[in-house]
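INFO batch 0412 | record 1 of 1 | parsing
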Amino acid sequence: MRFIKRFYLALILLIMYAPVALLMVFSFNDSKLPIWKGFTLNWYEQMLNDSSIQQAFLYTIMVALSASVIATIIGTFAAIGINQMSGFKKTFMTNITFIPVLSPDIVIGISLMMLFKVIRIPFGLPSLIIAHTTFCIPYVILSIMPKLKQMNYSLYEAALDLGATPWYAFKKVIFPEIMPGVVAGAFIAFTLSIDDFVVSFFNTGAGVDTLPIKIYSMARKGVNPTINAVSTLMFITIITILIINNIRANTNKNKSLPE
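INFO prediction complete | emitting tokens
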């Protein structure tokens, strides 16, 4: 039975990560064809010297940072507001929060595109930031809600009774308690923003390409190993963010355990 479990796990991991591993290997291949010809860093050199890729990288980081910061701020206060509700209102708002998470990306992308057209927001960097912020907020809320449920609100009420203002009590009592959820939500928002293609595709403007859009446009022109190099760096970046987040979460968990 143990062998079957290990074999099943290995098979699942192989199916999931073999294509990514193959892509990473061929990013060092000295040939445009999917046949190994030798090791080279030529494609990474071309990537670093390509001004359009550099511009796409800059836009990707700008959008991801802006969207994650704004979504984290809005999501934090939204989560606190939802947690303070009770009964039908709380259930309704929680379910509303789940809808963007469960909705297909193409639905979110097209609906935001139509909204921007109706209210006449020009397509470009502002529309991208607003779009990314919109679909990141629910993930921030869902990351913070468990921490709010674990918190003892009597500490907040005690701070108010001792003369603290609501903002000071929030800063010194509530925020430190929910900080792990806030940081986790910010990491998730940043990762989702970097990785997004569908919503970005429908809500970008001329000359404003993120890395996923740039990779798509390069792939349409034919086989280009530079795509493998860009995709490899994106994968490594996302994996690094996830590892840092998991290490931070485990560290906080170990600190909270009684000695």
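INFO post-check: The two ends are 37 Å apart (CA to CA).
INFO record closed
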